[in-house]
User: What shape does this take?
Amino acid sequence: MTDLRYEYIIESREHLATFEQSVLALEKSPHGEVSKALIENGLRAIHSFKGDSGTLGFASVNKLAHAIESLLENYRDGNQIPGTEIVEALLAARDLLVAQLEDLDHPRANENAQMIDRLQLLETQAEPTIPVDVLLEAWLARNPGKSLLDFFREVERVGVLRNPRLSLGHGSLTQDRWDTKCQARLTGTLDTRLASVQVQHLQQWLAGELVDLPSSLVGTQKRTVHISLSDWHSSSGSIVALFRELMARGEFHHPKLQYGEVPLQTGLPTEPIEWIATTLAAFELPKLPQTVPPIASAANTVSAAVALSSRNVANASQTVTVARPSSLSTPPFRETPTQQTPAPQPTSPTASSKATEQEPVPSDIAIPPARPAVQPDKERLRSLRINVDLLDRMMNLIGELTLVRNQTLVTFEGAEGESRTIIQRLNSVTSELQDTVLQTRMQPVGNLFGRFPRMVRDLARQLGKEVEIVTVGEEVELDKTVLERLTDPLTHLIRNSIDHGLELPAAREATGKPRLGKITLTATPADGQVYIEIRDDGRGIDPAAIKSKAVAMRLRTHSELERMSNRELFSLILLPGFSTAQKVTDVSGRGVGMDVVRTNVEELEGSLTIDSWPGQGTSMQLRVPLTLAIVPCLIVTVGEERFAVPQRALEEIVCLHKNGKWTLEQSIDGEVMRLRNSLIPVVRFSELLSRPRPFSPTDKEEILRDNTITERNADQIEYILVLRSSGRRFGLLVDRVLGREEIVIKPMHAALKPISVFSGATLMGDGRVALIADVDGILEHVRCPGAKAEEVSKATIRDPHEVHRVLLFEHGPNEQFALPLVQIQRVELLDTKRIERIGTSEFANISGKSTRILRLSDMLKVSTCEDLPTMFLILPKFIPEPMGILATRIIDTESLAIDLQSNGCERGVLGTARVRDRLSLFLDVQQLREFVFGPSKEPVGSSKSNPREMVGAQQSSVPKRILLVDDTTFFREIVKRYLSSDDVEILTAIDGQQGLEMLAAHHVDLVVSDIEMPVMDGWQFCQAARDKGYQMPFVALTSLAKIENEDKAKSCGFDDFEEKLDHDRLRRKIQFWLSQSEERLASR
Amino acid sequence: MSESLYCTFHSAGRLFGVPVLDVKEVTNHTTFTRVPHAPQEVLGLVNIRGHIFLAINLSLMLGYKEHCVKADSQFIVFKPSVGPSFGIVVDQVGEMISVPASQSEEFSSELPTVDGDRAVFVSYVCKLEDQLLLVLDPRKFLSRIEQSIKSRVSSNS
Assistant: This one.
């Protein structure tokens, strides 16, 4: 029983969701096929729900569902769409049903009954009953020349008069003729099936406000009704229902059956059988199929033209034909011969190979069979409902299996022969299984997006706005947990967009926008993550408003704000208490929300970026991981104990040793570390672990006293993890860092939850449990405020003015090498035993790729290295071939403004600079690559291999001139070095302003420009240059590798867009655009 | 209640028992991952076939001073109906003993063998022929641990 209930709840939720969607869509869609399909969809859903509820005995719910169904059925024919009031009621009723699903044992009978009353009231209004109260003299006076008979004819034509009552005043009826002063008053009610607009006309007519009934209603002649019984039968079933239906509409005269001439002995007629009668009653005629052109003129026979167009046809006798194409109608007829039809009599064949109609006379009695009923069944067979608990258990078991696998691998490490292959298979099958199980937890984003149309609708209504929501990428899949946790932030962001972003319809019109505001919700998968964008076309965020608010709140100084890019400015609104909304509404504006959104998103290990164009709209981009079940963590030890620290909180690791440059210093109540320019409080993990109570001042004193820096502990090597959380930064001192691991998070045991410094536990490869540190909890526990972290840096992609961070390392004992971090993919530990040799080349297997090992001493005139048991392999970025630079020691990373001395350097070296008082060689990775793999491949589809050759071949006398605009010396140097040759002259400028000056002073063939620059950024520069009429190609060069930037680049006048440091591509681009520039010249 | 079946064990030199229906399994796990900041009664966490269990040091829980876990200590895991994934570490698990209702009586805290504060864990005392069997109520262990963590947090703030 409980299982059955469970199933019922799940299915009902789906039915009700479908119902909601249909009703919502219905409100928007025009008349016709679409709305008809939607209504049928909704009806099917609510009908199924009704059936299920009935079966399980939820009577009260069942009744309400029935009321919903019967209200909606009135609109089944699609001629009329339910008005707002009806939709409102249907949705309210649905919500009531949903609420009861959550608590099946306590049906809300009273509320249901009230709702049923409301629906029924609406239903009677849907088939309007019009009170009639007409002063007959007045009508006659308005219609000179007409008689009372005309009046009654008209009334009869439009409906059925119920409870008619004629009351007379003091006049007299004694005379033969009508005494126009007798105050004859007709009262009663008129049941009509006219559409609401027509009802209005009718009411006006009755009230005397309209002299004539609208032409659509006028037409006093009889009409002949032709109905093809076989069609009716095949599409709707009961003929009895048909006649019941017809009887409800009025009186029919001279009915007869008509069918083709068929000798009875040969069989039953295959021609359609038609029922023909004449009537004065007016009723909604079945609508025309769209393929049949309406006939405007009157016709007194047959034709497709019937239906709706008949309303426009005045004063003509009509033949109303309801028939399907005979080709369709015949087979069903054959299958069900004479059952409901009278015995055929041979007559002449009718001319009824005519009008077509998919659905017969509208009816609330006969339900046409739903056509696409087969398809969902097919789909259902391919998927299976699985209890989430079961999936979770599967996840756990897989985790366990992985452990077993790991243990097996360790146990049989040296095994040979058969057992080796078996273990390898175990290994691969386990990995695959793990992937598959992870996939089972994936759900389409559509499940989440689906709830927003309703919310948007309600909210828009509440705020008096007109809003449309468009969703794209519903099929993108995310882990169930991630999806659940995304609900709140997304809801909030959309609310924000509607409330703050979109203007009121009138305001929108005033600025030349459509009244209807648009919100686009897009999900796109990218590199193991999902981007979700919420874009509105509202008023956008005003950077000036943010600035003034930030100053008012003393968050930033004027000068700081001036230097910030718009995106940096927008990221300020993510700070707590920051709201630029003029007024606080029910919906949003309290400045709490965005902070919560950010926290939520960060908990998901995601990020949030905001772009906005004043007057044009705002775009908020969320980036979230596909799954949460597995989280990258750093494994550290304190004493003998291992702990996992989530890597999302980690900024960097600093190593403390005797000769290192970092030291701990004591401040008033704690230890601090000088990290570049900031002081960072340091928490000793060991002290933290031994003090279960939140730190008191005494604790802090003790810690200071116990850890005074002496010679003894200065010998020790310790590590400080620089962590950040909730905008605070601190160092966590640990004994050792074991490495990085992807761990499966298990919740903390319920009894231990109050311990705030751990957020959960995990199983390590050896089967032991390790605890996961909770960074926030630690900060709380040590009562340390933490250094204020730079809020902005996280929300922006990269700070353009940042000095460059380089990795310092050693190869041989004598030289120090440097490589910018932006050029490094990662650094791998390399077990020297794993190096394999082919001839003189050395390779190592790095994540499945045979990676070529570069020994710097083989290429440069530097000291050779001695092989240590473990060394480091630096894997560079932007190199197509897998290769790594061998290093014996990683010294540190250092931030510095690079001032390269490049005179007389050999190939492979960019230049030298003094770093930490040591001469350091800056490597040119591209050239090193060429040592090993030779020059870059020639680009496809081009006859020239690189700019120099090309230019040289064509115009050896006049070198091409490229203007390179970049504010960072280092990039400028690298790119310049890379591109320059005898044939290409490189001019440089440090910002847009200078760039413009250079353009004015020199002839330039191609401009390569950075985007983020001080004074005048790349966008402005390009636009200004274009405005001045410079025609040469512009290539944007930036670290902001994003699609929307590409769009923006195009709109500003850039011809192309390239990522910094991808030299190969840049070279090809430049070559291409140089040739373009020639063409542009030629075409002028 | 005519007769009850108890799983007996020795700890701190005394004989204890828990209702056998409360016991999920007995294992030989003796290495636990210490949970810093947890009360001293919590030995730590252990992974049994992919699930993490909380281990409680019974001797400490009952207030005895000798509390070291030996290599041959045993881990009694309780069923989920008793509390979420946890168990007690005892010196040695003994036999299943069936005790007639007549031999067991509700525990009164005046018995000198148990520290008054810890008396709440004892639900019955069974008078076996040669010694006393103290029947413990494992349902009370976890709440005691939660309490002691909470009281520490509140006492400080």
Observations:
- Chain B has a mean pLDDT of 83.
- DSSP finds two helices and eleven strands in chain B.
- The interface with chain A takes residues 31-38, 42, 44-47, 49-52, 54, 83-86, 142, 145-146, 149-150, 152-153, 156-157 of chain B (CB under 8 Å).
